[in-house]
């Protein structure tokens, strides 16, 4: 077992993103603002993808992988203080989307990919669970879909067209970032100015 090549993610990196969002005028209808928020989300998903890949490649063991995931989750899901309510809401949306990314990765490392249904079937079933106000089941089902994405199955985002907007669609948005990260785990540059 070789040592992991680098720290997967740091509190400092997360804080740099938050500082950028504090400094900029954020308008979710504006393409650059939307891209900044998506880059923030993708950046975390890439770190998660790298941990799962390091685990799959045998560079780190299960315990190390779960510890690394836990460390990032603590940093990213900690409540963020913003003076601006709209920005606080937008960050909360990113954090909500990422909850499922962490659950999926934890489940994948601990138990491997689920194999009882396709990604779409899990997502649609999660939508039904959310309609029935069973959010624990909904999260579990979306996380199960996430394990399949980590394992290489494709998520077709059209599946969300059949869902009411809510937590499941937010979580699936996170899985979309995870899918991109698994297929192309290139680091999003924090200073990536277009």
Automatic annotation (TrEMBL):
It comes from the Archaea. InterPro entries: UCP022079 (IPR014518). It holds the Pfam family DUF2150. This is DUF2150 family protein. It comes from Halorussus gelatinilyticus. The lineage of its organism: Archaea, Methanobacteriati, Methanobacteriota, Stenosarchaea group, Halobacteria.
């Amino acid at each position: 077992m070789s040592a992991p090549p680098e720290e997967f993610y740091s509190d400092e990196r997360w804080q740099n993103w938050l500082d950028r969002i504090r400094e900029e005028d954020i308008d979710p209808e504006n393409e650059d603002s939307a891209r900044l928020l998506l880059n923030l989300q993708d950046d975390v998903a890439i770190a998660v993808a790298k941990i799962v890949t390091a685990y799959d490649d045998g560079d780190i063991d299960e315990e190390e992988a779960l510890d690394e995931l836990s460390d990032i989750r603590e940093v990213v899901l900690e409540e963020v203080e913003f003076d601006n309510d709209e920005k606080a809401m937008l960050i909360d949306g990113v954090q909500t989307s990422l909850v499922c990314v962490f659950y999926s990765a934890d489940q994948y490392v601990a138990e491997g990919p689920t194999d009882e249904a396709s990604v779409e079937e899990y997502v649609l079933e999660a939508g039904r669970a959310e309609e029935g106000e069973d959010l624990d089941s909904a999260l579990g089902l979306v996380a199960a879909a996430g394990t399949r994405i980590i394992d290489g199955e494709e998520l077709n985002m059209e599946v969300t067209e059949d869902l009411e907007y809510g937590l499941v669609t937010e979580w699936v948005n996170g899985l979309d970032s995870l899918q991109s990260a698994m297929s192309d785990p290139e680091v999003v540059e924090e200073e990536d100015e277009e």
